[in-house]
């Protein structure tokens, strides 16, 4: 699949007078593809010597919000805590 080129698509749209401005916006949106999901932050803790990090399912829009939640979400036996970027999930 070739890359999306706004200029090339617009040139082709301009060649066909039957395409309205609204249809042109829809064509651009479809060819451009899905917008990436916003990144989020999650508090994580490790509770044993394996070094594996665990999260409780909470996710926050900013790192500062996740940092503020970290002490409350930490387990009593937690060895250490951190704030990590949440992995991007694909929109299907």
Structure report:
- The protein is of the alpha+beta class.
- The protein folds into 2 domains: 33 residues, no CATH class; 45 residues.
- 36% of the residues lie in helices and 15% in strands.
- It is built from 3 helices and 3 strands, in the order ααββαβ.
- A 3-stranded antiparallel β-sheet has the order 2-1-3.
- Strand 1 and strand 2 form a beta hairpin.
- The mean pLDDT is 80.
What number is the mean pLDDT? 80
Provide a count of the helices. Answer: 3
SSE class: alpha+beta
Major β-sheet annotation? 3 strands, antiparallel
**Strand adjacency order, main sheet:** 2-1-3
The structural domain count equals: 2
Distance between the termini: 19 Å
Task: Assign an overall shape.
Answer: rod-shaped
Uncertain ranges: none
Count of extended strands: 3
| SSE pattern | HHEEHE
Into which percent range does the helicity of residues fall?
25-40%
Content of β-strand: 15-25%
* Rounded Rg: 22 Å
Can you describe this structure in just a few lines?
This protein is α+β, with helices and mostly antiparallel strands and 92 residues long. The protein has three helices and three strands, in the order ααββαβ. Strand 1 and strand 2 form a beta hairpin.
Q: What descriptive keywords fit this protein?
A:
15% strand; three-stranded antiparallel beta sheet; 2 domains; 3 helices; 92 residues; alpha+beta
Write the SSE topology.
Layout: H1 6-15, H2 21-32, E1 41-46, E2 54-55, H3 63-73, E3 80-85
